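Risk register update: the risk of archive-format incompatibility is retired. Evidence:
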Amino acid sequence: MAQAGDRQYHLQAEPGDVGAYVLLPGDPARCRRIAERLEGPRQVAANREFTTFSGSLDGVPVSVTSTGIGGPSTAIAVEELVKLGASTLVRVGTCGSLGARLEAGDVVIVQAAARGEGTTSHYAPTGFPAVADLDVTLALREAARAAGFRHRVGVVLTNDAFYAEMEPESFPMEAEIRERWRAWARAGCLAAEMESATLLTVAAVRGVRAGAVLAVIDEASAGLLGLPDAGGLPIDPAIDTAVAGLRRLIAADRDRGGGAAVTRA
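Archived output:
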């Protein structure tokens, strides 16, 4: 745990800047949009891809920190947030469907993530599962149900190479890439994205709880022509699910007589 005055190198935040509950978008530009759902939001730090706002929900400090794209920057954000006292982390991101009959704007609540990226190999053996905390997952599911959002709960694929997904025909290993995508889809992965497995694995290793809620914005492997308008992504249902889910977790933690619970000591 960082001591008073210990500014984190990448986040450029200090103890007291960040709440125990943190929402994690990838895009720094989404931080303000999410923070507007908090009470008294204020920007406390901005450096590189990491922007942090803090406010409160129901009187409890809550923060929003962007992770940037992919595993390496996500791991850095999680490591430094945990040092600042964060103990409940919820990714609020976007994804592409993997033939799971999902539509743009649908909400995917991550039960687990296939580790198709490279960062987590530095944290855990290959067979270690990237699993979301049960309390976080249930809180997100109940929030989506209560709001009436179309949603699915299940496994997603976390991938490293965005353009391997978007234009595999330009890659030397095109056949292998396409076969791998088909295999993940046939195995039951609902969608593909780039950060959840890292968040869930690092959180497990560091002893905090984590989960993820994603907005479906396109179809994975649809190609560059399938990319949606970046300025009009249907992300509000995912944001609202994350915020309402945190409210449920805060209330449950308060009923237990403590602050944000962690997965293990």
